[in-house]
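Budget justification, computational time. The allocation requested in the original proposal was used primarily to generate structure tokens for proteins on the priority list. As evidence of use, we reproduce two of the resulting records. The first is shown immediately below.
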Amino acid sequence: MTTAPERFAAWLSTDIAPVLRERGFTKTRSTFHRRAPAGWGVVDFQKSQWGSKLETRFTINLAVALDRLTTARGDDPSRKPLENRSHWRCRIGRALGVEDRWWSVTEATDLRPLTDEVLDDLARVLPLIEERLDDAGFLSAAMASPSLGLIQGFRPHELMDLLAPEPRSP
């Protein structure tokens, strides 16, 4: 008998990964990363700590880590960031304007409707990552929607200083 965590892992690899791969993401365990010129986009499938062999509950975390902010923090921007070390983080439920959103995989779960729902929700929220994947977009989104997600590690004035356009040479 396949356990719920095994079924979840297989579902993630066969039904979700190919769609995210088409959008430029690569998979490491239950986290997907997309490299952009100025940083990383992250989609993390977080399993509940209360899971069991019979049920895997999960939510999706979205994140962006910008190279300039990573460097300012003393980390290596060429390395795939952990979702919890990224500069902008947001749960998918918050991004969709609803309560925290969790799904469940069990032996009885019909994976087709689950896949459709998760992919539909991802299609709606991935633009939030895209618009934050460069310095100007990150700063603009932070100022326009300060309550959407969590910006960690920097105060607003520090963000403005660190992400200000670099002066052009004459």
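The second record produced under the same allocation is shown here.
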Amino acid sequence: MEVALFFHLLGAFVLVAGVVVAGIAHAAARRRRRPDEIALLLGLARVAVLLVGLGAALVLAFGLWLVDLSGHSFGEPWLVAALGLFAAALALGAAGGRRPRQARRLAARLAESGRGASPELYGLLADRASAAANYLAALMIMIIIALMVWRPGA
């Protein structure tokens, strides 16, 4: 059980680290004026998204194993809520990452051509729907962590 718990917690730390790094990189990119800097920072966010994926896979795989090892039921309300929030957070994060990905590609093209940042680039970076999806996904992850720590009703 200790091995499953170790990798589950490792996955949680990697997942949260990826979310934090991606958020910081995107926020920093929004404050830059040169397309090459924006592309670099959004490239860092892309690497952070890989951490999110790795962390999510570890959390899910070892979390499900922990449920089996601990004798908990997959029908327990705190677990059903956590799994539902997990799926929703991943879907929202993926949706929220579309505009930053488009911004990274546009910034790279602008940098390669030697042009400055365009209004289109700033619009992609400032997309409110993407920001809302990402903030909501991060909030869901925090709620999941609370559910995992306190396991209400367990």
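A brief technical remark on that second record: The helical segments are 2-30, 35-70, 77-96, 98-113, 119-125, 128-150.
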